Amino acid sequence: MSSTTDEHMKPGFTVTTTALLVVVFLQVPVIVVVLAAFSTTSYLTIPPQGWTLNWFAKVLSDPNYLSAIRMSLILACGSTVISLVLGVAAAYALFRKALPGSEGIASFLMAPLILPSVVIGVALLQYYSLTGLRGSLFGLLMAHVVITVPYIVRSTLASLSGLDLSVEEAARVLGANGFDAFRLVTLPLIQPGLIAGALFAFITSLDNVPVTIFLISAKQTTLPVLIFSSVEMGVDPSIAAVSTLLIVATGVVLLIAERRIGFHRFV
Length: 267
Known about the structure:
The chain is an all-alpha fold. Helices cover 77% and strands 0% of the residues.
């Protein structure tokens, strides 16, 4: 009897153990970076040689890092807002079949998710060189909109797919015009999907290197590009410190989103 029970438990135990080992393996680089950020040495050491917060203070007082953080936040916030407006409008039109060739348009909007980021960066570089947008903040912002719109469209379509359109139609019967019915009825119902899409878009823009590095000017830089450039010249714990700040900020945002809207439903 006990042997039979053990035989049934072994496969489940093996799967659980394997899954746990995979998770630990994936998190090892993150753990290494976080530990290195607290080292008292001027170079990366694991385990840390002592513990200090000086590298975090250095990052938060360095004008180069502060300027890069500011630029990254401007791009991330700006591209997220623009993508929300464009993506929600496009997803709603596609859902209501208001456009001919809706499937083709949807595939076109989702293309940046499939194409390698380097390809998108090179293509935009060629286009911006011809139009004179290369190195401009507006051009860089529009490039980030290109790579973030698909996340808004996908999450909005996922939310709309579970929506009962009769609720919106009832609002129109009661006297609301099309825009008011969408604003007062449909939009609140799909709000969790919009928040999830906005978070995806914000994180994607904030963390982007392949597209940004092709289009940014010499006088501008974003935090991921600055980290990438700093790693080429040599690695010190300040890079680990700013990376740790990004990891913590992203984790906190995702945790709040999961608690409030059930973020896992849109992943």
